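agent> step 3/5: call structure_predict on target 'Iron-sulfur cluster assembly protein' (Laceyella sediminis).
agent> reason: downstream docking stage needs a structural representation; sequence fetched in step 2, passing through unchanged.
tool.input:
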Amino acid sequence: MITLTEQAAFKVKEMMQDQENPEALFLRVSVQHGGCSGFSYGLGFDEDKQDGDALLEQHGVRILVDKDSQPLLKGTVIDYKESMIGGGFSIDNPNATATCGCGSSFRTATDAGKPSDC
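tool.output (status=ok):
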């Protein structure tokens, strides 16, 4: 469903070490309504697996994806890239047919979401 690159996993594990109780954490990847294009991505840490969550493990990172987000994220690749001006996560979602200029929101061919003001 989701591919977390080795570089992204390394960065996630590094960030988890700054949290309380890092060994209990999951990386939660989700989609919410909002953003310029209709949907926005959510990446964060969670200690609790909910009913309907898909559980994946890649490069030593346990990943949760909620039931509603799963079809919107199928085939998505999450990477982390460093540059001279900093670094950041990039999300390559094959389901996105349109994205905003900053790349943090999208819509699909079958669902426009609920856009919010940018």
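agent> step 4/5: record observation. The longest helix spans residues 6-16.
agent> proceeding.
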